Amino acid sequence: MPSSTQNPQKIYSLRENESPASPEPFYQNYKEGVPIALDLGSSSFKIGLTNSTSPNNVFPTLISRFRDRKANKSLTIIGNDIYRDSSIKSSTKSPFDGPLITNWDYVEDILDYSFEHLSVTSSNGKVNNPIIMTEPPCVPFSQRKNYYELFFETYQVPKITFGIDSLFSHYANTDNYNPKTANSLVIGTGHESTHIIPVVDGRGLLSQAKRIDWGGSQSSQYCSKLLSMKYPYFPSKLNSNHATNIVQDHCYVSNDFQEELKNYLDMENLEKNDVVLQATNELNSGAASSNAANAESKKKSEEELKRQAEKRREQGKRLQLQAQQKRLEKLIQKEQEWEYYSNLKLEFESMNKQQIQARCVQEEFESVEDFNKYVANLDKSLKKARNEDVGDGEEGGDGHSGQWTLVDIPDDQLNEEQIKEKRKQRLMKANFDARERAKQAKAEEEELLRKFEEEQAEWRARDLEDWCAVKKSELADIITKITEKAKLLESFKDRKSMAAQQRMRNIATLANDENGSTSATSRKRRRNANSTIDNDPNDTFGTNDDDWNAYRDITNASLEEQLEEDNQAVLKIEAELLLYDPTFHHEDTFNASQKFDWENSTLHKFIHGPRENILVKLQTESSQKNDGKLLEPEELENHPEVVQRNHQMHFNIERIRIPEILFQPNIAGLDQAGIVEISENLLYHRLDGNFQPGGQSYNLIQDVFLAGGLVKWPNFESRIINEFTSFLPVGAPLKVRRAKDPIVDAWKGMQKWSQTEECENSYVTQAEYDEMGPEYIKEHGLGNVCLK
């Protein structure tokens, strides 16, 4: 699809976590003795009494300790309230470190907050409600020990029981659940890990449960790393909340990852799949400051503005005059030097080679070639200076020779004041002569140019085909030079190249220049020893601006200038050919041949999406409109569209790459098997592998249950179906289903289970805890077991 016909892409802002419009609700139907279901996850916290069908409070498991200096108080902010004030976010912390709780003080603060919003009250200072709580599979003993201590010793609850969140979710989504005959393969994707638990005859078979160390937290971190490597100079910081929201909002599971990856960056597919993420930029703030500046300027009186404008004009004129005077002085110096060496060249005509060489050495040149090169460069520099605008409006008094009455009078016939005046007149006369010579040189060049144009017009009229052929030949020669110089510039980047080696030799020569070097630069320094600006009479470097050209040998300035001149010559010839040659078109120009084919660049489409890079686009448009002239770097940098594009990220291949890690963990460097490989091994080798009616594997594949937040990704269910079908026997009765609400269904399962006899028999009372200690648990079908 041509870029000119493409519609603008939809732009998604980087979503920030925001607190709900209403504050955290307080429960109005609290009763003592009613079990409290509590799902304490590393991502979110859900709590509520089981006499309700949904949790009363759902908020992120975050806490912030904030010091209010005005009130001189320390505040503890929990859950969604953290997002109400941006200053609090910087001190946000979680009680979890990975899948385990490491700060139990934070947990106690969160429970205090939750019980308060449940309106828990009692006459004995205890929480008189049983607790049903989730925990990860195979929880370490230290975690449950601290749970027991917290609830029995701090809150003094009457009894407590624990269960696994994914099994509770499976229980909530299964109608007529039979705790003795239920069979299922539960795949639970959590915030810190993913578990695959076979449920056989109503009980989780924990001895065959498998874990993948990948969950929502790792997916967000991986997304952040991918985007940081993709956009290393992105102007805005991508925080963890941004990454989490990107993964939740824009990732999806590919039904065939390898096949989709092959064609993902094709323009047609990229047009549909590329997601543009826009970060906030400073355009609005810049506009606001500009409006404020305009308002401030309006407050100033018109008279003050006029005075300021007049002052600026006077300063500009003064600077122009100073610059003009400096240019004239340089021009005079160069003309005197050129005249001296021109006369020397005339003297060379009457000398032999040995005499010429001796005279060159006497003039402190290394060789005749060095002399010729220096004179040629001087002539080129002089022509360039003459072409500058020397102006005709200098100060009065130097417009005719009648005002220079003292120039030809010897100093011994003048007094001191007249000698000073004579020096001024000599400088004014030299300035006048320099301008006249510059005007004359300009007029001569214009006359030569006019004659050249007439000759060219006559040539075109006489033989257009020959003229075009010669111009194309000249164009090809210049383009060859440009290519060679571009390669030379590129070679400077390699320190082992000949060009880089030569530059190092030049640096060494400059450092050793005081040891009798006869280069043009050293010769000029010694020749102008009387114009030193230091106390050292031997150090005159810098008194003449041309001295600084010595550094051109160790930088690329000279080569870059030549390259610019060649480019201008190419543009000039191409303009003539476009005007007179009917066979020469814009597609034949050098710029068009060097144009970047972004539509066929995999890297460009990966980084910039299915649209042309804005910098290339703006430079191309500028070149077409302004006869090859490109925008200045400052113009590009401050261009509104460039600023906006610089704050955009293109989220494309990452959309399927991040979810794919659950199926291929090696993508992220995990030496583990994926969901499908583990499930296949479990069904074929860990269980009985019998896919006939009555077999364990046969019963499990009839109910493959998906739980946890990551199963909300699109195509997760269909991918599981496709992958399981590929390794199951033909005709196997595979059924895959997903939790109705993957986030809250674990709490709903606890609420539903609290009304059963199995729940009542699974509580550990405070008396049993006091007698048995924290090692004691009661096993049930939805919880952990004692593995020996």
UniProtKB/TrEMBL annotation:
Coiled coil: 424-462
Compositional bias segments (type: Low complexity): 284-295
Pfam family, any one: Actin
Family recorded in the similarity comment: Belongs to the actin family.
Bias (Basic and acidic residues): 296-317
Protein's UniProt keywords contain Amino-acid biosynthesis: no
Polar residues compositional bias, start-end: 1-10, 512-521, 529-543
This protein's UniProt keywords: Coiled coil, DNA damage, Nucleus, Transcription, Transcription regulation
Record-given protein name: Actin-related protein 5
Region (Disordered): 1-24, 284-320, 386-405, 507-546
Gene Ontology biological-process annotations: DNA damage response
Cellular localization per UniProt: Nucleus
A GO cellular component entry from the record: nucleus
Domain of life: Eukaryota
InterPro entries in alphabetical order: Actin, ATPase_NBD
